[in-house]
Amino acid sequence: MIRLKRRNTAWLIVMAMIIGLALLAAPVSAAVQLSLIGALAVAVIASMIELGPERETLLQVLNRAPVRRRITPQAREATERAAARAGYFNRSGIVMLDIGLIAMQSGAEGMAMRRTRNISKDDDGARPFITLFVHPEEAERQAVIRYEIYNHLGEEQYVHEMKTYLREGELSLLADHHLPLAGNRGVDGNGDWDLRVYVDNSLIGMHNLMLAPSVNERRRRLSDEREVIDEQPSRRRNLADAVIVEEPQQPQTAQLKDLLKQPSQPSPSRRRSLRRR
To answer: Which of 21, 12, 4 is nearest to 39 (CA)?
Structure first.
């Protein structure tokens, strides 16, 4: 809202009289005259126009402009994806500066940690993280941060909630627990996965990530198949070298010969039953 500040009218009149006397007292160039008149016009505009609530909004925008420049491409993409979802809530007092995963892999040199959006089943695990910038209106309170990871079928694979105290300024939050990957048979399905982050049950970001199969498991599987293929010729050679011994025919006993030669005859009980009929 624009308001006129009449309390400055007196000194503006004095300033206008001084400039008028300066212009009339001595001959001055046109450039000097224009500069004096311009200074008077700026003073009049600055003193007579007052910004109401718009002034505070303008100052907030100017103060937050440097923060917007610190947003990473990953955080900007995650915010845009979340804004297209129904559960998104635009919190002007909380700005997400960064989002991603920390993958951990143990080796001969110890534990190696890297920031990535491409994880594999060879990694020991992965922990999500976010970096927030908290403005004063959202600061000095406790909030619940929720991380969710979904596989390529939209099935929930990881859920973790943690309470944190929001302080004014930049705040980095790393999940307390990780998603186990190496040797975890419950984690299946390669391809595009999603990381979703909530602040007080409000969706603030959706981060895309990629899960790749285990190279070590594939190598072990191929080595096992090679061993099976290598064993097959040796088995064939063993069969070729084997001596086949024919089993000698066992002489049939006299009782067995007699049973085979005799025609089928009814038993005595069978004969009696036939006679009664």
So the answer is: 12
Q: Is 32 within the bounds of a domain? A: yes
What is the per-residue pLDDT across 124-181, written as a single tens digit (0 to 9) for each? 999 999 999 999 989 999 999 999 999 999 999 999 999 999 999 999 999 999 999 9
pLDDT for 61: 55
**CA atoms of 237 and 242, how far apart (whole Å):** 9
Same domain, 39 and 119: no
Could you give the CA distance from residue 274 to residue 277 in angstroms, rounded to a whole number? Answer: 5
Structural domain that includes position 89: 70-216
Spatial CA neighbour of 197 closest among 106, 77, 103, 107: 77
Amino acid 209: pLDDT = 94
Domain boundary among 198, 216, 234: 216
Question: Which residue has tokens 């224009």?
Answer: 34
CA distance 194 to 14: 68
pLDDT beyond 50 at 200: yes
- Residue 40 in domain: yes
Q: Distances in Å between the alpha carbon of 79 and those of 73, 98, 157, 206, 270?
A: 10, 10, 22, 7, 94
Alpha carbon 68 to its chain's center:
21
127 shares its domain with 182:
yes
What are the C-alpha distances in Å from 190 to residues 108, 121, 168, 210, 212?
Answer: 27, 9, 39, 8, 6
Distance CA 119, CA 103 (A): 7
Number of structural domains the chain divides into: 2
Residues 77 and 211 occupy one common structural domain:
yes
Nearest to 148 by CA among 138, 161, 135, 139: 161
**Three-state secondary-structure class, residue 26:** coil
My answer on whether 42 and 75 are in the same domain is no
Residues in Cβ contact with 216 at an 8 Å cutoff, skipping those fewer than 6 apart = 122
